[in-house]
């Protein structure tokens, strides 16, 4: 069995996928690299994947499938994974070698333990185009460092500071056991990926190294603001699926720290969806914002009241155009502070 499986979802990625793959080859024979070609047709993605699989047959596997979107590619990666642990690296991102080797060393230490490690967290770097100073997303103020811990030992997470797909490595069998299946033909499913498995996570470890380099700044990138607004219905779909998950797992309330974390993460997603709908400026999308909050209220009135009465809930419901203008202004301040989009 391999120590780590890394799935690389690829869709028309010929311009940058080689950099991603080359950075992961540094892991050697302990790592299984699954290049998941998600129905690419405009370029040589499939050919490049096959070339790497032929050159490194004991490390790289090329998987070709019909287009199903990012979530479908991740699902395929999980289905084919043989490694003890599982990581997703997007085809336009890459990893830092020294941190990568440290992560493999850490995973190796836990691989023979009777009680397995469920989740390893590390830092990631926003590698934003044009930015002279790169923002590092680290967790040393929220998580114990260099030791195994549980949810009850986690500290407070600041608003906008959460465990994202870039920062997490899951135990592969945990992902299979929890039944995670991301929706197809839908963007922003990475939020579900770092949300639904959490109640199954018991033993965690935080390694304070800057491992993942998250490239951000392409005009066609899914997290570009204009692109997000054009795909806001997919953002809403993910948002509602997160609400549904919370409602269908009432047992989470019995675990205080886990509940707080998941509730606060849902609040952030609810706020992002609302801001995008406000930012679009159309009456249709303003009506969708009302419907989204009504959906939360109908599903779980207690959860709705908790989020609605929070700071974001109050800001997002300020009346009239002045209220909406204030929300947009506040959103731009957050952009500058947290360096997203």
How are the SSEs placed, and which strands pair?
Layout: E1 4-10, H1 17-25, E2 31-38, H2 45-55, E3 60-65, H3 70-80, E4 85-88, E5 94-95, H4 97-110, E6 119-128, E7 135-137, E8 148-149, E9 168-171, H5 172-177, H6 190-193, E10 204-216, H7 225-230, H8 232-248, H9 256-280, H10 283-299, H11 301-308, H12 311-315, H13 320-338
Parallel strand pairs: 1-2, 1-4, 2-3, 6-10
Antiparallel strand pairs: 4-9, 5-10, 6-7, 6-9, 8-10
Helix pairs in contact: 8-9, 8-10, 9-10, 10-11
Describe the structure.
Strands 1, 2, 3, 4, 5, 6, 7, 8, 9 and 10 form a 10-stranded mixed beta sheet that branches. The chain has 2 domains: 4-216, Spore Coat Polysaccharide Biosynthesis Protein SpsA, Chain A (Alpha-Beta Complex); 225-338. It contains 13 helices and 10 strands. The two termini are 38 Å apart. Helix 2 links the parallel strand 2 (31-38) and strand 3 (60-65). The protein has helices at 17-25, 45-55, 70-80, 97-110, 172-177, 190-193, 225-230, 232-248, 256-280, 283-299, 301-308, 311-315, 320-338, and strands spanning 4-10, 31-38, 60-65, 85-88, 94-95, 119-128, 135-137, 148-149, 168-171, 204-216. With 341 residues, the protein is α/β, with parallel strands linked by helices.
In what range is the share of β-strand residues?
15-25%
Give me the oligomer status.
single chain
- CATH architecture designation of the largest domain: Alpha-Beta Complex
**Tell me, what is the CATH class of the largest domain?**
Alpha Beta
Structural shape: globular
Order of helices and strands: EHEHEHEEHEEEEHHEHHHHHHH
Q: State the helical fraction.
A: 40-55%
- Secondary structure tally, helices: 13
Distance between the termini: 38 Å
| CATH topology type of the largest domain | Spore Coat Polysaccharide Biosynthesis Protein SpsA, Chain A
- Strand element count: 10
Helix vs. strand class: alpha/beta
> Unreliable stretches, pLDDT < 50, 5 or more residues?
none
The largest β sheet comes out as: 10 strands, mixed
Superfamily (CATH H level) name of the largest domain: Spore Coat Polysaccharide Biosynthesis Protein SpsA, Chain A
Which value, in Å, is the CA radius of gyration?
20 Å
Number of domains: 2
- Write down the overall mean pLDDT: 93
